[in-house]
Amino acid sequence: MERSEPAPSPFPVVVTADWLRAHRDEVVLADVRWYLDGRSGRRAHAEGHLPGAVFVDVDADLAAPASPTGGRHPLPDPVDFAAALSRLGIGDDTTVVAYDDAGGSTAARLVWALRVLGSRAALLDGGIQAWRGPLEPGEVAPTPRTRTPVPWPADRVADTAAVRAQLGDPRHLLLDARIHGRFSGASPAPVDPRPGHIPGARSAAWQGNLDSEGRFAAPEALRARFRALGADTAESVTVYCGSGVTACHDLLALEHAGFGGARLYPGSWSAWGADDSLPAETGD
């Protein structure tokens, strides 16, 4: 899956706060804060966001309703996703820069979704903490724009059956973006249906894509990370997490490193782990 050199992209995976300041009038800025512990991202947005940023709701805008087979955050129906983007002022030709306050772990879902659909989107490197300037309180009312529904590319998304069909095949790499304790089963989260991980998966916690300052690691560092996990020799790479959100951080890191075409398993552990007929492993 490795390219000899990273292929030119129509838009970078990450942009700096200085880049955003210079290009602010050319992009829609999206606040994608969301919290696994139940805190309200919308409330955090109302208390203070980057000037002009629209709030994107992970649960309502970036996911279909949860289900046992689809997991906690299934990909939204293309028509529903286009309607949400239109309401948020994200049209067919809109460039988006998304941020959160957690290393890009939730904003990555929006950026990945837009990029696989052919739109220009990037993470704000360092998130809200990287912004030097006052925050703006209150709600932002965007002007709706036309957004055409586009199906999710079949080669960039895997369902449970596809993941199961490749179990035990060394040609196909499966990465788990959750923290190692959730992967191993030593420290499961309350939302995990059971401890452990999909058999044969490699632990690739999304936090490992960041440097010591919480910024995206350099492409060469990410390239070394994913080579060590086998991405350079695998015929395919599929990434999952708890519910298909932080897995997108790994997918963007893979792209930033020059590994193209990796797939998201949206159901992730919330779908796989909930089905007792499917196998699971604990430990490393």
Automatic annotation (TrEMBL):
Keywords, sorted A to Z: Repeat, Transferase
InterPro entries, alphabetized: Rhodanese-like_dom, Rhodanese-like_dom_sf, TST/MPST-like
Species name: Thermobifida halotolerans
Top-rank taxon: Bacteria
Question: Which Gene3D superfamilies does the record cross-reference, listed alphabetically?
Answer: Rhodanese-like domain
The answer to whether keyword Chaperone applies is no
GO molecular-function terms, A-Z: thiosulfate-cyanide sulfurtransferase activity
Q: Does the keyword GTP-binding apply?
A: no
UniProt name for this protein: Sulfurtransferase
